[in-house]
Each structure stands twice: as C-alpha cells, then as structure tokens.
Amino acid sequence: MIRIAKGAVLLWMALAAASCVSTKKYNQMKAEAMRLDSERVRALGRVDELDGTRQRLETELRQLREQAEALSVKHRKLEKDYNDLISRNSAEASAMLRQLQENQAELEKREARMAELEQMLRNREAALSEIRRKVADALLGFEGKGLTVTQRGGNVYVSMEDKLLFRSGSFEIDPEGARAVRDLGQVLAQNPDINILVEGHTDNVPYRAQGQLRDNWDLSVKRATTVVRLLLENPDIAPGRITAAGRGEFFPLDTADTREARQKNRRTEIILTPKLDELMELMK
After folding, report:
1. Can you tell me the distance from the alpha carbon of 139 to that of 186, in angstroms, rounded to the nearest whole number?
2. 3-class DSSP state for residue 190?
3. Residue 200: which of 174, 212, 218 has the closest Cα?
4. Which of 276, 125, 275, 272 is nearest to 187 (CA)?
5. How many domains does the chain divide into?
6. Which domain holds residue 256?
7. Smallest Cα–Cα separation from 270: which of 224, 238, 226, 234?
8. Alpha carbon 260 to chain centroid, angstroms
9. How large is the average pLDDT for residues 160-177?
10. CATH number for the domain harbouring residue 178
11. For residue 228, what pLDDT is reported?
12. Mean pLDDT across the stretch 237-252?
C-alpha cells in the first residue's frame, strides 16, 4: 500500500505541474510526499524488526518442543522403571510390612510394661512416704535428741547420733537409745516388705584398741550389730530382712575438723528399702 501511495503522489505532482498550479500549492504537496516517504521507510524498518522477532520466537518454540519431547521420553522411562521396581519388590514390601506390624505389636507390649513399671514405682514411692510417716510418728518423742527421719534416693533414713545410742568408744547401747530402737522395731514388724540395713559410722579420731576391737572399722561394725540384735528382740522381724555394716570414718556427713562435725559424723543409720522382687521380675 505504501508503494501505491508513492505512485499516486508522483501522478498528482505531474498533473499539478501540467495544470500550472501555484508554487505554494506545489511546495505543500512536495512536503507531504516527502513525509509519506519517510513514514514508509520507518514502516519497512519496523516490518523487518518484527520479522526478526518472529523468527527468534519460532526458533525458541522449536527448542521448547524438542525439550518437552525429551522430558516426555524421560518421564515414560522413569514411570516404566518405577512400575518394574514395584513389581520386583512386591515381596520385599510385604515382608517389610509384616516386620513393621510385628515391631508395632512389640512396641505396644513394651509400652504396656513401662506403664506397669511406672505404676509400681509410684506405688513404691507412696509406700516409702507411708513408712516414713509411721516411723516419724513412732519416734516423735525423740525429736531434738539426735534422731532424724528423712526420705531420699528411694529410701527412708533413720539416723541416730551417738549421744542417743552409745557412749564414746563404747558399743553398749544406752537405755534411751534402746527404747528408740525398740519403738522403730514395732513399726518394722508391721511392715514385712521393708528391708533393713543398719550402718555404723564413727568420727576420724583414731580408736584406742581394746579387747577384740582394733580400730574404727571394728567399732562401727560392732555398733551396727548391737542395733541389729536389739531389733531382733522383736520376734516378728525376720533376720533375713536385716543387714549390718560398718562404715568406719569414711562416710562423714561433715568433713570439717571441728568438734561439732565429729559429733555429727558419729551416728548409726537404719536405712529402710521396700523389697523390689516384683519390680525386678518385671524389669527382666
């Protein structure tokens, strides 16, 4: 259409010249013709530019189609490999499923055992608290006289200082201390599921050997067995429940080198522990 417009312009100019049009009119027509020709040149350039863009887009589209086809081929291969793998491993998958089910059953069984164990531990702690209360009630009259009752580490500790039980360097029990031990024995006789450990402790002052006693080891053991024999005066306490031990000077409560620390370290501890037979059987 631009080429047709150019021819029309030239024809018009010829006719105008032939008709002897005015110079002003001629110049206007000439300027219009030049403007149209310039627009034609720009339009041709735009057409070339658009044509180049079209070619680039067609090339890119062709590449994308090739890539899509390659991906489609790869996808079909992966899908085939997956189906082959599922087919080959169906037996292994079934075996794995059975193993998972067995593991789940075992896990549930163990969780049930754990719950039972936790309940037994709670019952044990409750039993310890009750024993501590009964012992504290039974020995209430000895408060402030060197006797304490505490619960720690899953045990009840009845600690009696030597000022309540024994004279210095002696393993013969004083009457007041003997009464405290007998009162404790009554509680222990009523609770046969409690094991009893009696530990003798001394201070770090060397013991002057006399008779069959050579040192603080001997003195601590003798004091422990003295308390054990006093407990066994109660016929309802089975000897198999009791253990006697001497600790000598090697488990002090206070390591200071003072009179007060040494007095605190001279003590007899009666450690009460619930029997764990049922608990240990469950743990096996």
Report:
1. 11
2. coil
3. 218
4. 272
5. 1
6. 120-283
7. 224
8. 44
9. 89
10. 3.30.1330.60
11. 97
12. 94
Which segments of the chain are extended strands (E)? 147-152, 155-161, 194-201, 242-248, 267-274
Lowest-confidence pick of 90-94, 118-122, 243-247: 90-94
Within-domain flag for 269: yes
Give the tokens for residue 217: 């080891």
Mean pLDDT of the chain: 81
Residue 159 CA to residue 165 CA, distance in Å, equals 11
Give the 3-state secondary structure of residue 101: helix
Q: Which amino acid is at 271?
A: I
Half-sphere exposure of 284 toward its Cβ, with a 13 Å CA cutoff? 6
For residue 232, the tally of other CB atoms under 10 A from its CB is 14
Range in 19-28, 94-103, 161-170, 216-225 the model is least confident about: 19-28
3-state secondary structure of 210: strand
Average pLDDT in the 205-223 region?
Answer: 89
Structure token digits, residue 87: 């087919």
CB atoms within 10 A of CB 195: 17
Determine the 3-state secondary structure of 266 from DSSP: coil
Q: Is the pLDDT of residue 273 over 70?
A: yes
- Here the tokens at position 252 are 């002090």
Please determine, for residue 141, whether its predicted confidence score (pLDDT) is greater than 70: yes
Tokens of 275: 């029997």
The per-residue pLDDT for 1 is 46
The span from the CA of 224 to the CA of 2, in Å, is 128
Residue at 30 is within a domain: no
Cα–Cα nearest to 32, from 53, 50, 6, 14: 6
- Lookup: tokens for 254: 């206070």
Q: DSSP state, 193?
A: T
Amino acid 271: pLDDT: 94
Residue 119 carries which side chain, given as an amino acid letter? Q
In a domain, residue 38? The reply is: no
Residue type, 207: Y
**Residue 182 domain-assigned (yes or no):** yes
